[in-house]
Amino acid sequence: QVQLVESGGGLVQAGGSLRLSCAASGRFFSINTMGWYRQAPGKERELVANINRGDSTNYADSVKGRFTISRDNAKNTVYLQMNSLKPEDTAVYYCNADVYYLSTFRRWGQGTQVTVSS
């Protein structure tokens, strides 16, 4: 069983920064793509950024130049550095990971709230 545990959410003023972390634990051989999604009230969950094992990254247009995704493969951890935060970034942020153990499957974290005040 694989678990993803997120941390680092909170309340911040517009223009501020937060760093989210997500650590994977449990039984698996490897983790390929790891990513961050977010879901604001009344909206669908959307991709924020993802990163594969080779460190190739992909960002939503709305966060390019402000957010940076990175990972530490030795720690099975993915990070999201969020700078120049805006009120529209307010959402629950979820991490996910494509985990390989006999077959590949996707796991999700429980979510962490990010609130940006104006």
Describe this protein's structure:
With 118 residues, the protein is mainly β. It is 0% helix and 62% strand. The protein has no helices and eleven strands. The strands form two sheets. Strands 2, 4, 5, 6, 9, 10 and 11 form a seven-stranded mixed beta sheet that branches.
List the helices and strands and how they pair.
Blueprint: E1 2-7, E2 10-13, E3 18-26, E4 30-39, E5 46-51, E6 57-59, E7 67-72, E8 77-82, E9 91-101, E10 103-108, E11 112-117
Parallel strand pairs: 2-11
Antiparallel strand pairs: 1-3, 3-8, 4-5, 4-9, 5-6, 7-8, 9-10, 9-11
Give a summary of the structure in a few sentences.
The protein is an all-beta fold and 118 residues long. It has no helices and 11 strands.
Helix content: under 10%
Order of helices and strands: EEEEEEEEEEE
The percent range for strand residues is over 45%
Determine the oligomeric state from the structure. Answer: single chain
Strand tally is: 11
- SS class: mainly beta
Rounded average pLDDT: 96
**Spatial gap, N to C terminus:** 40 Å
Structural Rg: 14 Å
Largest sheet: 7 strands, mixed
Poorly predicted regions: none
* Structure annotation, total helices: 0
Shape: elongated
